[in-house]
């Protein structure tokens, strides 16, 4: 039988040891990197908790008030009080739409922006808000980098002026390094920029990639995916979106390269926690659960076809805001589309939209399967 007798001195020492171990454990947990891919429907919004109480928000979802409210609520639940950086990858509405409300709700240190000018009212309001709040505004370029918490951010694109890029390809692309791990954030870049990134970074391998452009088939070339060889691929995408994102062949490409694919439409909020060597992924719901739920509600082919037609944008009745969702269509071109249909009695076939000034074959081919005339 053991007889434990502790002197006051030994008791005090034991308490100090326990306190030290507890504090060390809490500090280690606090220093872990956490990346939250917030479920905002068809858009991007990513919270990076870089350790030491430092936070980065990458993009701000779409312009619907409900989306901004969802992001703000999510950030507050993570006890975020200050955003040290907002990284605005490019000025499409599904990436900057909620930023005005977010800036109203949190202290913001610096906004990092691609510098690509857009004619939309959403972009104008975003710039006005930054100016009103006197927030530091910078346009990083390839080679720029900074440290935050225990992480390093390095920008890989764009290389110089963005005048030669369209909105998607003007996206800020950056690498987040934490310990031995690398995480790549790609905005909405397409294959043209992917090729350039491969030439500049031929040996780059990453643990995680934020899949470019919501899994569109205009991005994620096979050479790009094979070279990066990601273990995780996260697609920020909304359920039943009329763009058809993500493309089935893109999802399969990542899977064939050994990546585990996560999607907001199937998994809800996706949180990756990393310690510099290992990572863990937590989701709101598993893919299998969501698949079973979907299959149990499968409708006849006729009903599915009707649903698909309802998801198309009717160019004879669509508002400016609806038309602005199409790739390469801003408010000015949307107004031209409306003027054309009013002056010509409407469109009789979708190809007729190419008669509108500013719409060429390239733009039409991007979304011809997403529009209708009835």
TrEMBL record:
<protein>
    <submittedName>
        <fullName>Competence protein ComEC</fullName>
    </submittedName>
</protein>
<feature type="signal peptide">
    <location>
        <begin position="1"/>
        <end position="30"/>
    </location>
</feature>
<dbReference type="InterPro" id="IPR052159">
    <property type="entry name" value="Competence_DNA_uptake"/>
</dbReference>
<dbReference type="InterPro" id="IPR010994">
    <property type="entry name" value="RuvA_2-like"/>
</dbReference>
<dbReference type="InterPro" id="IPR035681">
    <property type="entry name" value="ComA-like_MBL"/>
</dbReference>
<dbReference type="InterPro" id="IPR004509">
    <property type="entry name" value="Competence_ComEA_HhH"/>
</dbReference>
<dbReference type="InterPro" id="IPR001279">
    <property type="entry name" value="Metallo-B-lactamas"/>
</dbReference>
<keyword id="KW-0732">Signal</keyword>
<feature type="domain" description="Metallo-beta-lactamase">
    <location>
        <begin position="42"/>
        <end position="242"/>
    </location>
</feature>
<dbReference type="Pfam" id="PF00753">
    <property type="entry name" value="Lactamase_B"/>
</dbReference>
<dbReference type="Pfam" id="PF12836">
    <property type="entry name" value="HHH_3"/>
</dbReference>
<dbReference type="InterPro" id="IPR036866">
    <property type="entry name" value="RibonucZ/Hydroxyglut_hydro"/>
</dbReference>
């Amino acid at each position: 039988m053991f007889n434990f007798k502790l002197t006051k001195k030994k008791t005090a020492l034991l308490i100090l040891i326990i306190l030290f171990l507890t504090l060390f454990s809490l500090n280690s947990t606090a220093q872990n990197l956490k990346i939250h891919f917030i479920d905002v429907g068809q858009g991007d919004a990513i919270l990076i908790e870089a350790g030491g109480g430092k936070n980065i928000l990458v993009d701000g979802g779409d312009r619907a008030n409900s989306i901004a409210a969802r992001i703000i609520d999510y950030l507050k639940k993570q006890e975020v009080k200050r955003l040290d950086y907002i990284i605005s990858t490019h000025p499409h509405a599904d990436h900057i739409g909620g930023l005005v409300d977010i800036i109203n709700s949190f202290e913001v240190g610096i906004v990092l922006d691609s510098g690509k000018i857009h004619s939309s009212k959403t972009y104008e309001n975003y710039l006005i808000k930054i100016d009103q709040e006197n927030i530091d505004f910078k346009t990083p370029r390839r080679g720029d980098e900074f440290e935050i918490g225990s992480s390093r951010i390095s920008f890989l694109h764009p290389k110089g002026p963005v005048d030669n890029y369209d909105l998607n390809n003007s996206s800020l692309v950056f690498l987040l390094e934490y310990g031995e791990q690398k995480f790549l954030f790609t905005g909405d870049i397409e294959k043209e920029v992917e090729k350039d990134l491969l030439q500049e970074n031929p040996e780059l391998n990453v643990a995680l990639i934020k899949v470019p452009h919501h899994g569109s088939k205009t991005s994620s070339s096979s050479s790009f995916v094979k070279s990066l060889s990601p273990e995780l691929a996260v697609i920020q995408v909304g359920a039943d979106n009329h763009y058809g994102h993500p493309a089935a062949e893109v999802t399969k490409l990542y899977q064939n390269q050994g990546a585990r694919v996560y999607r907001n439409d199937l998994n809800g909020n996706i949180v990756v926690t990393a310690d510099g060597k290992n990572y863990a992924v937590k989701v709101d719901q598993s893919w299998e659960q969501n698949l079973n739920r979907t299959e149990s509600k499968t409708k006849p082919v006729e009903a599915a076809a009707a649903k698909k037609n309802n998801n198309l944008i009717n160019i004879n009745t669509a508002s400016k805001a609806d038309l602005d969702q199409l790739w390469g269509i801003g408010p000015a071109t949307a107004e031209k589309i409306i003027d054309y249909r009013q002056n010509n009695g409407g469109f009789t076939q979708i190809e007729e939209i190419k008669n509108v000034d500013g719409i060429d074959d390239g733009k039409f081919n991007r979304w011809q399967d997403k529009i209708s005339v009835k």
